[in-house]
């Protein structure tokens, strides 16, 4: 085998690790791939780790034990996250986004892969220690961010649907009360999608009353699965009590003034105020 230069190994190693976040790769894997001694691979890993830390591009975590190795975690800088969310808020505050009824058009933003990928990294970093087996969302607006969160966690995405499909096979369906409209709605999941005892991370686009989140939690009870966290892209700031209180959000929607053509959105208090 042709000898692989160190700079080539480091670049390839970074690409392999970052393409599979939260997945452990053994030293033997890289040693066989590059035809290099494990001591050499360890030195390469140290270089990758130093570069990631220096430029706040993520982190490498060492996994101990017989099947141990190294994995990439998409941990980003807190100040950079705040600046990123501030830019997103600025885009969303454009008066041209206001729709009749006080709604806000954000479909283009939540379907932008560069935006949702970063949101997914931030959300995943909050829940690495929760050891979720999958990310759960409900169709449709929350799917892009939930998918990117699942990618950063290295787990599957499971989508609860409003109406079951023929291709789902046997399904579990529940009725739930919407916290915002106070109407009865339903959601379904294929019986094969979740196994008993698995751990679910709920990710959705918007929290107003909390009825959908409660519905997703109730759905997990039907599968005897554990919910280890609940997170949203945005929550509505309201004086009314929400149906859930143990959640996290990236941004807070303070107000949409249809008459005055103003929108007020800010990063969540979880990020604090930064210069």
What sort of overall outline do the alpha carbons produce when their principal axes are compared?
Answer: globular
For the record, what CATH class of the largest domain applies?
A: Alpha Beta
The stretches of 5 or more residues where confidence is low (pLDDT under 50) are none
- Using only C-alpha atoms, the radius of gyration works out to 21 Å
Instruction: Give the helix tally.
Output: 8
Q: Helical residue percent?
A: 25-40%
- Name given to the CATH architecture of the largest domain: 3-Layer(aba) Sandwich
| CATH fold naming of the largest domain | Rossmann fold
Give average pLDDT, whole number. 93
Terminal CA distance: 52 Å
Query: What percent strand?
Result: 25-35%
Instruction: Please summarize the sheet with the most strands.
Output: 6 strands, mixed
**Arrangement of strands in the largest sheet:** 6-5-9-10-11-12
User: How many domains, as an integer?
Assistant: 2
Structural class: alpha/beta
Reading the helices and strands in chain order gives HHHEEHEEHHEHEEEEHEEE
Number of strands: 12
């Amino acid at each position: 085998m042709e000898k692989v230069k160190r700079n080539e190994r480091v670049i390839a190693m970074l690409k392999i690790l970052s393409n599979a976040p939260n997945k452990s790769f053994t030293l033997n894997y890289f040693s066989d791939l590059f035809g290099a001694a494990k001591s050499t691979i360890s030195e390469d890993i140290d270089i990758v780790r130093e570069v990631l830390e220096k430029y706040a591009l993520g982190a490498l975590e060492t996994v101990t034990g017989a099947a141990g190795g190294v994995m990439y975690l998409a941990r980003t800088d807190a100040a950079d996250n705040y600046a990123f969310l501030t830019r997103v808020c600025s885009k969303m505050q454009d008066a041209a986004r206001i729709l009749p009824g006080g709604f806000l058009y954000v479909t283009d933003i939540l379907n932008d892969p560069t935006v949702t990928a970063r949101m997914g990294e931030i959300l995943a970093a909050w829940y690495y220690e929760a050891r979720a087996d999958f990310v759960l969302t409900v169709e449709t607006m929350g799917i892009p961010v939930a998918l990117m969160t699942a990618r950063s966690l290295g787990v599957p995405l499971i989508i609860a649907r409003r109406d079951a499909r023929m291709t789902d096979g046997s399904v579990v369906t529940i009725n739930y009360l919407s916290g915002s409209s106070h109407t009865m709605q339903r959601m379904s999941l294929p019986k094969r999608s979740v196994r008993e005892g698995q751990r679910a991370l709920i990710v959705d686009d918007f929290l107003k009353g909390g009825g959908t989140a409660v519905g997703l939690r109730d759905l997990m009870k039907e599968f005897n699965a554990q919910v280890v966290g609940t997170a949203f892209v945005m929550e509505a700031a309201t004086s009314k009590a929400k149906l859930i209180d143990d959640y996290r959000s990236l941004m807070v929607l303070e107000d949409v003034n249809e008459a005055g053509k103003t929108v007020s959105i800010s990063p969540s208090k979880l990020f604090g105020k930064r210069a």
